[in-house]
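Quarterly update, task 2.4: thymidine-5'-triphosphate-bound model.
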Amino acid sequence: MYTGKRVILASQSPRRKQLLEQAGIPFEVKVVDTAETFPADMAIPEVPVHIARQKSAAVAALCTAEDIIITADTVVVLDDTIIGKPKDREDAIRILSALSGRIHRVITGVVIKREQQELAFSKETAVHFKPLTTEQITYYVDTYKPYDKAGAYAIQEWIGAVGIDRIDGCFYNVMGLPVSNVVEALESIAAENN
Ligand SMILES: Cc1cn([C@H]2C[C@H](O)[C@@H](COP(=O)(O)OP(=O)(O)OP(=O)(O)O)O2)c(=O)[nH]c1=O
């Protein structure tokens, strides 16, 4: 069990909160709005950590020096292009049509910060979508309204159960937090500080 310093999860994502709770980590949530930007020439695997670092810097002012701050960012990558959150219904339908029958990558970057120390890593999961029908896509978008989800879907919802037949990597990473790696990192920080 984790017995280290106060943990702050700087995220508005209910999924990240759920996953950290599931892992038995006591924590508080603090939310800040951050512009999620990255240089156009940045290599895609580096982008999620870069954005998580921006979130971390934005929340630091609200925390004490002792606090351990966790931030994360999840991107969906198809054909070397980052697909963000859908702008609207049409965009969600377009994105899911593009993912249908294909394999894409989901990369979550995590930054764990305490005082001047920073631990940053990212994890990748390959996700294989079965071919989806137009009916399935419109049903999902209209019922689940996945506008706050990278790639316009959530693996933990209906579409994950019926439309995804295999993944290679961590399931929770697709949901937004590679939680076993986060726990491991917190335990190593706690051990260093004891
Ligand atoms: C691909 C996928 C994404 N998601 C979610 C995880 C993230 O919440 C969201 C990606 O957006 P993010 O920008 O990573 O996170 P967020 O805006 O929700 O929260 P914050 O920046 O405050 O931490 O998509 C799922 O829940 N399931 C999935 O299968």
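Highlight for this quarter: The helical segments are 14-22, 47-60, 89-99, 134-144, 158-163, 171-175, 179-192.
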